[in-house]
From TrEMBL:
It comes from Petrolisthes manimaculis. Its main location: endoplasmic reticulum. Coiled coil: none annotated. This is Cytochrome b5. SUPFAM superfamilies: Cytochrome b5-like heme/steroid binding domain.
């Protein structure tokens, strides 16, 4: 018979998150150990410095502190947000949390996988044109 023990090994990553204070995070601001906080989560991006499309400088600048605002200002894509999970090492202590909300990528930063978006815009534009034409014809009759 099939044993039903498949659900106790998955999705434990979130539960295993370590808790760090901002003070602890502030000790990691070098190339060898570069941590930063985004939306109250702690990321160790030391191994990502060379790969970051925005360059290592910006990451080093934000290291040891809260990079949420800069991260959101750039409007990182869905792909970037997926990528982050790889570098997640923990979260801030309750007292250090800012409880910022992750509103997802900005409209201009959707990843290429969501080409459907352009089609949606295209469809909407056609609909607006047709509606305008109908109104025009109704008014000029
Ligand atoms: C773990 C954290 C981060 C990851 C995984 C990440 C990933 C990425 C990726 C994949 C891109 C390419 C564009 C995109 O897909 O959105 C990018 C661009 C960029 N990132 Fe980050 N990033 C992180 C943190 C930060 C932080 C804290 C800053 C602070 C300023 C930053 C600044 C930038 C800039 C300036 C660009 C270039 C945007 C452009 O040229 O259009 N990133 N990042």
């Amino acid at each position: 018979m099939v044993a039903q023990d498949g659900n106790n090994t998955s999705s434990q990553h979130e539960e295993e998150l370590k808790v760090y204070s901002l003070e602890e995070v502030a000790k990691h601001k070098t190339r060898d150990s570069c941590w930063l906080v985004i939306h109250d989560k702690v990321y160790d991006v030391s191994k990502f410095l060379d790969e970051h499309p925005g360059g290592e400088e910006v990451l080093l600048e934000q290291s040891g502190s809260n990079g949420t605002e800069s991260f959101e200002d750039v409007g990182h894509s869905t792909d970037a947000r997926e990528m982050m999970k790889e570098y997640l090492i923990g979260e801030l202590t309750e007292e250090d949390k800012k409880f910022t909300k992750d509103n997802g990528p900005k409209p201009w930063a959707y990843s290429s996988s969501s080409d459907q978006n352009s089609w949606r815009w295209c469809g909407a534009s056609v609909a607006v044109c047709v509606a305008a034409l109908m109104v025009y014809r109704a008014l000029t009759r």
